[in-house]
Amino acid sequence: MSIVTIMASPAVRRALGYGVLAVALVGAGAGLVWWGLAPRIDLAEQSAARSAQDLASAKATIEDKNAQLLANQAQAERLNQVELAVSQLGVDIRQYNRDQARALEDLKRNDQETMQYLAGAVPERLGRLYERPETTDPRAYGSPAIVQSGAVPSAGASGTRVE
Length: 163
Fold this sequence. Notes:
Layout (H helix, E strand, L loop, with lengths): L2 H6 L1 H110 L4 H6 L3 H4 L1 H4 L13 H5 L4
């Protein structure tokens, strides 16, 4: 049997027609499926690209927030150090206040001793050390100061010019 004789029979032709029709229908169906799915595939690809961009943006945001948290943590540590220094200064100030109160009490006690000393007579040796006629002689105390004549030139003498 040759191909020509096989093709000449109507059953074979009909089967071959049905086969070609089936292949055409399958091809048309695949084309329709592809035509229907292609926009969805494009949308899915666009959605995937947007999701990748959103993911990269989210990662960048997370990294920024992490950097901010690290900076805040470092600042909190510095603030803790400042707080410790301030509390130490408070302790020092309280100690200085106690020392100052003691010193003030000593000064008050010494002031009373000094007032008692000053209420007494001035020691003679100390009085002679600062003795001056202007302060010890009543006649010298109120006398006017004496200006020597000729110490200051007269107004007319310096006003003339010799050329």
